[in-house]
């Protein structure tokens, strides 16, 4: 899938427009200068390309001089009673169920990102690029993390506090706005965007469980995903492989079992979407390898973690995709 075909819901553009007006900015003029149609403001059921949205976000930050602009957009969405994130997760029985529904929801909101859970020492909600495709505008990522963070806090019957939040973006000039919004330890220039929760997060009961609403939402999400250009089954498998990779030796049979499918069915569905399990596994291994190397893990440890039979096999794998050895990659990566 080409980067140009990645898109997001135009409600984001509508909210950007409203916040600009509240800040005294000529919002219509800004959109026109950015070459982005005002249809995205007034017709909220449209989809805007990630590149078009990135241009608007960039111009909005320049116009306001506020690199915490994404948090203001998030606050506006959080005040909306029909916020689809709230509907998607609030009706679930537990936080684990809510997170599953949230992951499915974000495949609809923006098919240019991959949202998944990763469990090691903490239970993390991760917002990551799809392969080598750049993420949407960093302000859009700020807004997405802010909404997930606040909605998660508000739906549980017991307090849920994030242990820390990691951002891929550089440290903002307006760090105080981030500190006040999140009120927990923040880290910038990280390898992935993630909200880190305690491991027992999944079992937390929710306040407004509603099975009927959950079924309606699931039907809506399933239908919406099918209408997107990004292959929905491929994205689901990729998210699961990323989740399992640091905990298990990932095999086709293991992933099929987790998805409650036969291995042939899994392979057939991936082939229908013009990919294969091996291609997905290699892509996830490469992304995870880079993350571990950036943390200064040794090549031997990375090879072992990712299930290679020897460090030399891992080195050959890495060079095949990156063109350089992992040691060279590690030595050229900024601290």
Quick recap:
The protein has helices at 11-22, 27-33, 39-42, 50-64, 69-78, 84-90, 95-109, 138-155, 175-182, 211-226, 232-244, 252-258, 263-272, 277-294, 299-305, 311-322, 326-332, and strands spanning 7-9, 47-49, 113-119, 123-129, 164-166, 186-187, 193-197. By secondary structure, the protein is α+β, with helices and mostly antiparallel strands.
What does this structure look like?
The protein is built from 17 helices and 7 strands. Helix content is 56%, strand content 9%. The chain has helices spanning 11-22, 27-33, 39-42, 50-64, 69-78, 84-90, 95-109, 138-155, 175-182, 211-226, 232-244, 252-258, 263-272, 277-294, 299-305, 311-322, 326-332, and strands at 7-9, 47-49, 113-119, 123-129, 164-166, 186-187, 193-197. The protein is an alpha+beta fold. Strand 3 and strand 4 (123-129) form a beta hairpin. It has a 5-stranded mixed beta sheet with strand order 3-4-7-5-6, with helices on both faces. A two-stranded antiparallel sheet has the order 1-2.
């Amino acid at each position: 899938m080409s980067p140009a075909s990645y898109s997001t819901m135009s409600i984001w553009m509508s909210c950007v427009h409203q916040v600009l007006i509240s800040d005294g900015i000529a919002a219509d003029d800004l959109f026109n200068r950015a070459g982005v149609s005002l249809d995205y403001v007034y017709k909220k059921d449209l989809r805007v390309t990630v590149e078009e949205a990135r241009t608007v976000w960039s111009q909005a930050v320049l116009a306001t001089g506020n690199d915490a602009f994404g948090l203001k957009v998030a606050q506006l969405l959080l005040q909306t009673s029909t916020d689809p994130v709230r509907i998607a997760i609030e009706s679930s029985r537990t936080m684990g169920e809510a997170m599953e529904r949230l992951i499915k929801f974000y495949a609809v909101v923006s098919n240019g990102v991959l949202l998944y859970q990763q469990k090691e020492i903490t239970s993390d909600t991760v917002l990551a690029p799809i392969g080598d495709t750049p993420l949407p505008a960093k302000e859009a990522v700020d807004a997405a993390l802010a909404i997930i963070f606040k909605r998660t806090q508000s739906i549980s019957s017991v307090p849920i506090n994030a242990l820390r939040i990691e951002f891929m973006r550089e440290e903002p000039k307006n760090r105080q706005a981030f500190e006040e919004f999140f009120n927990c330890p923040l880290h910038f220039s990280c390898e992935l965007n993630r909200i880190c929760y305690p491991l027992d997060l999944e079992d937390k009961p929710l306040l407004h469980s509603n099975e009927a609403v959950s079924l309606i939402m699931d039907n809506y999400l399933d239908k919406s995903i099918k209408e997107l250009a990004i292959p929905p089954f491929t994205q689901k498998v990729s998210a699961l492989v990323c989740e399992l990779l640091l905990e298990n030796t990932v095999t086709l049979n293991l992933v099929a079992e987790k998805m409650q499918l036969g291995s042939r069915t899994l392979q057939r569905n991936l082939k229908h979407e013009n990919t294969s399990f091996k291609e997905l596994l290699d892509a996830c291994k490469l992304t995870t390898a880079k993350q571990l190397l950036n943390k200064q893990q040794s090549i031997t440890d990375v090879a072992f973690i990712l299930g290679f039979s020897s460090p030399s096999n891992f080195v050959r794998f890495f060079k095949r995709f990156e063109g350089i050895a992992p040691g060279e990659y590690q030595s050229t990566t900024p601290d």
